[in-house]
Amino acid sequence: QVQLVESGGGLVQDGGSLRLSCAASGRTFINDRMDMGWFRQAPGKEREFVAAIGWPGGATSYADSVKGRSTISRDNVKNTVFLQMNNLRPEDTAVYYCAGGMTDRPFRPSIRAENYNYWGQGTQVTVSS
Predict the structure, then answer these.
(1) Which residue from 14, 18, 115, 127 could staple onto 88, CB 3.0 to 4.6 Å apart?
(2) Nearest-CA neighbor of 105 among 61, 60, 54?
């Protein structure tokens, strides 16, 4: 089993920045060949893909809505994945979830939620206008 714990959410003004972190325990990113992703869910909306970084690292994918404003990265030694978000907008307000999925395809991170086996509890990001 993998436990994922997010942190770094909060309240920020329009145009501000946040850095989300997700610490994993129970397995290791490298040995267990895990893609890592971030998804979000706003009130009344379905969960949507935000960003992903593939096993073993380097290859990334972003939703169009955050491309150019966000950077996903991973530390395979510390089993932690990060999401740096800049120039935040009110429409970025959502609960952000970290997810991990085992893969046999290096450098090709999945953007599909159904390909992720493990999920964190989520961290709230609120952007005020």
Answers:
(1) 127
(2) 54
Q: pLDDT digits over 44-81, tens only?
A: 999 999 999 998 888 999 999 999 999 999 998 899 99
Please say whether the beta carbons of 22 and 6 come within 8 A. Answer: yes
| Residue 35 to residue 101: CA distance in whole angstroms | 5
* DSSP assignments along 4-59, one per residue: EEEE--EEEETT--EEEEEEEESS-TTTTTEEEEEEEE-TTS--EEEEEE-SSSS-
Asked if residue 104 lies in contact with residue 72, where contact means CB atoms within 8 angstroms, the answer is: no
The Cα–Cα gap between 4 and 88 comes to 24
